[in-house]
Amino acid sequence: MGLLEDKVVLVNGGSQGVGAGIVRAAIREGATVAFTGRRAEIGEELAKDTGAHFVRADLADPAQARGSVEQVVAAHGRVDCLVNAAGLTSRGSLLNTTPELFDAHMAINVRAPFFAMQGAVADMTARKAPGTIVNIISNCAHGGPPHLAPYSTAKAGLAGLTRNAAHAHRWDRVRINGLNIGWTDTEGEDATQRAFHGAGDDWREKAAEAQPMGKLGQPDEIADFVVFLLSDRSGVVTGSVIDWDQIVFGGTD
């Protein structure tokens, strides 16, 4: 028996990177999996490769964020587990962030998870059934570097939302947790390093050499941890925002 046998899992932002890793891991553990993405060609390719159900959605639109859950309920009867993995990481400091950039971060990194959770918890409570939610947050929720001001602000908001919703729905047996992931080797990070930091083809190797464990975070490792949190094997844990990183926050040299 897989850890998610007979569960219906929705991964928002699941077409690539960490989200795609979670899609694959959840399928491996026996779940019926649906995932969202904006780009049809990428989503349809992953769906063909895995057998997962692709739902095209722009999560910046609150109606589509909640609607992603409603489409999965219509197709599969329910949502047992939700993962919010979509994220916007475009750069901006306190001094150069425009209102438009700030709003874009709030829309994807806070508002989309809020309304997806609203839809999922509404389904769970209407059925009087337990459920689990995992939010992919960031270690930037602790503060973050100067060039990630709107991102850090949004992720701190998502950490607060995770705890608030977990507390509100603990008696409904809906467990909600989050992961503050660190620097992770994904397609999106590759594009970000090249676009914003002038990185060359060897940026991964250089970055890995500078890390305590000799590598960046890996999507498949994060996915395994997410599957554990979604499953009954994680027991009663709810409202936890876990630092999944090789930085030890609060440690000093």
Description:
The chain is of the alpha/beta class. It has one domain: Rossmann fold. It has helices at 17-28, 40-50, 62-76, 99-126, 149-168, 187-197, 203-209, 219-230; strands at 8-12, 32-37, 53-56, 81-84, 131-136, 174-181, 241-244. It has a seven-stranded parallel β-sheet with strand order 3-2-1-4-5-6-7, sandwiched between helices. Helix 1 crosses helix 8 (219-230). The model has no long low-confidence stretch (mean pLDDT 96).
- Secondary structure: helix percent: 40-55%
The CATH architecture can be given as 3-Layer(aba) Sandwich
Flag low-confidence runs.
none
Strand content: 5-15%
Layout of strands and helices, then pairs:
Blueprint (H helix, E strand, L loop, with lengths): L7 E5 L4 H12 L3 E6 L2 H11 L2 E4 L5 H15 L4 E4 L14 H28 L4 E6 L12 H20 L5 E8 L5 H11 L5 H7 L9 H12 L10 E4 L9
Parallel strand pairs: 1-2, 1-4, 2-3, 4-5, 5-6, 6-7
Q: How do you describe this structure in short?
A:
With 253 residues, this protein is α/β, with parallel strands linked by helices. 46% of the residues lie in helices and 15% in strands. The protein has a single domain, classed as 3-Layer(aba) Sandwich (Rossmann fold), CATH 3.40.50.720.
Keywords:
253 residues; 7 strands; seven-stranded parallel β-sheet; 46% helix; 8 helices; alpha/beta; Rossmann fold
